[in-house]
Design brief:
By secondary structure, the protein is an alpha/beta fold. 42% of the residues lie in helices and 19% in strands. It has helices spanning 3-14, 20-27, 44-48, 61-74, 85-95, 131-143, and strands spanning 32-34, 39-41, 53-55, 78-81, 99-101, 106-109, 118-122, 146-149. α4 (61-74) packs parallel to α5 (85-95). The protein is globular and about 60 Å long. It starts with a helix and ends with a strand. The relative contact order is 0.11.
Length: 150
């Protein structure tokens, strides 16, 4: 849950535009949502400014899609790393508009504007074998709000 959404909900309760029951329902999974096969940190964005990221390696396509669908309920933007194209297709179906970066194996769902870029990150790699990891780092840093120079 994002800070502004939480603030708006609490203001809604205060102004009686949102019922206490509706607010409780929205807050019931803070700070974690247990899916049985994964425990999502739904409070991470409030604590750190960075939402939960799906590490796809070792997960099934169905698990990745279910996690993305659940995260899409609380977070506007989603990152999924170490993903394959089949995972991308399922995430796009579950969470909406998504991009897949083949070399980096990263899925980015960003229906809302990305944060204003801050800082400057220099990304350097030693050679061709390092390109997938370097590209993954560049996409993640860019999506989280850093200016990236390759």
């Amino acid at each position: 849950m994002e800070i502004q959404r939480l603030r708006d909900m609490l203001e809604g309760v205060k102004n009686q535009a949102v019922s206490v029951e509706a607010a409780l329902d929205a807050l019931k999974d803070l700070p974690y949502h247990d899916m049985g096969f994964a425990k999502l940190d739904t409070h991470r964005h409030l604590r750190t400014g960075v939402p939960e990221v799906i590490f796809c390696q070792g997960k099934t396509v169905e698990q990745v899609a279910a996690i993305a669908q659940r995260l899409a309920q609380d977070h506007r933007n989603i990152l999924a790393t170490r993903a394959n194209r089949e995972m991308f297709e399922r995430v796009r179906a579950a969470a909406g508009d998504a991009e897949y970066h083949d070399l980096a194996r990263v899925i980015v769902v960003k229906p809302s504007p990305l944060p204003e870029k801050i800082g400057r990150l220099a990304l350097v790699c030693a050679g061709t074998a390092d390109l997938p990891v370097a590209e993954e780092a560049a996409i993640v840093a860019d999506t989280l709000g850093s200016n990236v120079e390759k």
